[in-house]
Design brief:
7 helices; Major capsid protein gp5 fold; alpha+beta; globular; nine-stranded mixed sheet; five-stranded mixed sheet; 16 strands
């Protein structure tokens, strides 16, 4: 049965795992949206963790026909794909003397555990966007690679260039804001949302379907919110989670998500960089360009894959009651991978200038 992290929390094997999952959900709104298809079983000898799936690359259309004439034959296009599930998480070591120094809420064990959870969340975000198995065989292919060359990869063409500017100085009138929103809407119109469950609960899986988000970095999401305010399409609500309120902002029906910086905090997960937008050198290099990703979550769209019968998240605390001065704590998620089931379910808007 497909699960979300919320359902994994209910079925956690003990209170420690329950608390760890609770914190993962607090750190990331995206964690709560990912549906995990927990169907993978090891192959012969337990050596294979392969998830096979069919990728829909082009849908077919219906048509009308004249009396006494046949329909024109059409076919949808699909590809057989597979990916190998990989565990991710991390470990830390801690001397038993340092274990309990200070209050329980801030001692070294608590600190190391919290930082491990944050690091695992960051690693997942990095892989979702930038993953490339040709570079890192321990991960999975991310949206940047999967969407390259697809119909939902959109490169704007403002004034004959292969980029568009949302920089503060470039958008100073309603007319200019509307032109940029036209580009945004044209891109979003090419994306087909998940239909699993529609707006209701799926009778089969018990899961909400069709949650949609635009993923960006701090600057791109800030600029998008500014554009949305011009058109009165920016909304902000407070949602209560575990007694704590978190703000969820939207452009229309799309949730806006800044997925943050890398583990070192030195650069955003979705980079802002200098690049040649048209790739042929005609316009030269342009500074402060970034991309935005639109994602529809669902088993027919973008989802996770995990093992059958294995907890999605497991935390192994240090064994303080056994001999040895230095102990190890570990967090393991999966094995898992993210799956793009339908290339129309996600998209990327390239070359947005944000400064």
């Amino acid at each position: 049965m497909p699960i979300t992290l919320a359902q994994a929390q209910i079925n956690a094997r003990d209170d420690i795992d329950h608390a760890v999952i609770d914190n993962l959900r607090r750190y990331s709104w995206l964690w709560d949206q990912i549906i995990w298809d927990d169907t993978v079983t090891p192959g012969t000898g337990g050596a294979s963790l392969t998830y096979g799936y069919t990728l829909l690359t082009a849908a077919r259309q219906g048509q009308f026909r004249q009396i006494n004439q046949e329909y024109t034959a059409q076919s949808a296009s699909r590809e057989q794909r597979s990916t190998t599930l990989k565990p991710f998480g991390g470990a830390y070591t801690l001397d038993r003397i340092l274990r309990g120094l200070g209050p329980a809420a801030t001692n070294e064990e608590t600190f190391q555990t919290q930082q491990l959870m944050k690091g695992a969340t960051t690693s997942l975000m990095v892989e979702i966007v930038n993953g490339d198995t040709a570079v890192n065989t321990a991960g999975f292919d991310g949206l940047d690679k999967l969407l390259t060359g697809q119909a939902t990869e959109y490169t704007p063409n403002s004034g004959g260039t292969a980029y568009t500017s949302w920089a503060p100085g470039a958008i100073d009138t309603q007319e200019k804001a509307n032109l940029q929103l036209d580009i945004l809407e044209e891109w979003l119109s090419s994306i087909t949302p998940s239909i699993v469950g529609g707006g209701d609960m799926s009778a089969d899986a018990g899961l909400p379907g069709g949650v949609k988000a635009i993923l960006g970095n701090t600057k791109s999401i800030t600029r998008l919110k500014a554009l949305a305010r011009w058109a009165n399409l920016h909304t902000s609500t407070l949602e209560t989670f575990g007694g704590v309120q978190r703000r969820v902002e939207r452009y229309g029906e799309w949730v806006l998500q800044d997925i943050g910086d890398n583990a070192l905090g030195s650069a955003p997960v979705i980079p802002i960089e200098t690049r040649d937008p048209d790739g042929v050198g005609g316009g030269g290099n342009i500074t402060n360009l970034t991309d935005l990703y639109a994602v529809s979550f669902g088993l027919d769209a973008f989802h996770g894959a995990s093992m059958a019968g294995k907890p999605l998240v497991a935390y192994y605390p240090p064994e303080w009651n056994t001999p040895g001065a230095v102990k190890t704590g570990e967090l393991e998620i999966g094995p898992g991978a993210m799956i793009l089931r339908n290339t129309k379910a996600c998209g990327v808007l390239r070359n947005v200038k944000v400064a």
